[in-house]
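Researcher: Let's do a round of design. I'm pasting the structure tokens now; please hold your answer until I've finished.
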């Protein structure tokens, strides 16, 4: 019980009232299967992995995920993986090249989103950084952390050769047209 006294009235004892206010919220994070800061070769496949967890007891429908991928990578496919193992591959590619997927989050539920990409061939070594956002009408916009890598420019001189007409496990690794 609580004691209440107001403008000239006697103190009254009233029973405590307990009210639970449940506001929707999500926790989001991003990682990659190649450690941050690592150099990636042109043509190399890698995966940006996002986790989102519903921190409330409220069902969240139509949560929107948007990843404006760096122009130095090529989108391959997406996996939205629910805790029960269900996988959704539905994705929209927006006019600006960003990847967009919608999903739901049950109370307390956690999902994983894998965005599979390949590093494009580029003219110079290039630093890239990726960040995505999650949007819901009751929460607003929540941005993920950034993950950064370096894409290495591929030079023909980067290839190891064993000499003229040498074989490595049955493959010709160099062929000299002059001979």
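Researcher: That's everything. Go ahead.
Model: Designed sequence:
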């Amino acid at each position: 019980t609580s004691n209440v006294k107001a403008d000239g009235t006697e103190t009254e004892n009233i029973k405590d009232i307990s009210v639970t206010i449940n506001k929707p919220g999500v926790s989001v994070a991003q990682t990659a299967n190649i450690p941050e800061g690592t150099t990636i070769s042109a043509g190399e496949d890698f995966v940006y992995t996002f986790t989102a967890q519903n921190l409330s007891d409220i069902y969240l429908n139509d949560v929107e995920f948007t990843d404006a991928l760096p122009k130095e990578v090529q989108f391959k496919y997406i996996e939205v993986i629910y805790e029960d193992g269900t996988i959704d591959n539905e994705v929209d590619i927006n006019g600006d090249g960003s990847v967009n997927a919608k999903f739901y989050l049950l109370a307390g539920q956690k999902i994983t989103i894998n965005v599979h990409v390949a590093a494009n061939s580029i003219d110079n070594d290039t630093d890239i950084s990726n960040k995505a956002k999650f949007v819901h009408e009751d929460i607003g916009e929540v941005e993920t952390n950034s993950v950064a890598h370096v894409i290495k420019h591929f030079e023909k001189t980067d290839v190891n050769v064993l000499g003229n007409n040498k074989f490595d496990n049955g493959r010709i690794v160099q062929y000299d047209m002059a001979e």
